[in-house]
From TrEMBL:
This is Mth938 domain-containing protein. Coiled coil: none annotated. Pfam families: DUF498. Gene3D superfamilies: MTH938-like. SUPFAM superfamilies: MTH938-like. The lineage of its organism: Eukaryota, Metazoa, Chordata, Craniata, Vertebrata.
Amino acid sequence: MSSPEIASLSWGQMKVQGSTKTYKDCKVWPGGSRAWDWRETGTEHSPGVQPADVEEVAKKGVQTLVIGRGMSEALKVPPSTVEYLEKQGIHVRALQTEQAVKEYNALAAQGVRVGGVFHSTC
């Protein structure tokens, strides 16, 4: 299974290839996607993305996980989250969301088993 392309991104809205849903925040992995509901793990902009937020995507066998930190990079990524992923041999890229989507789509187009968690507002 390949990683689905992020088909479109604008403030507060993302569309993923193969899904009819419009996401505000989303998780993507080879073969699927779903809404990223911060309430599931109590995530806030600070301290930011927790290991629990990326665990689901990490378990899908990704080689690289791209984190979209928001349009203004308000969403933090603490070292503990990066360490959690790196200990599993997963390369991590945490970028401003527009740049993160470009990076994710480029990797997906190259056939890399890439996953991502993306925040589409601040």
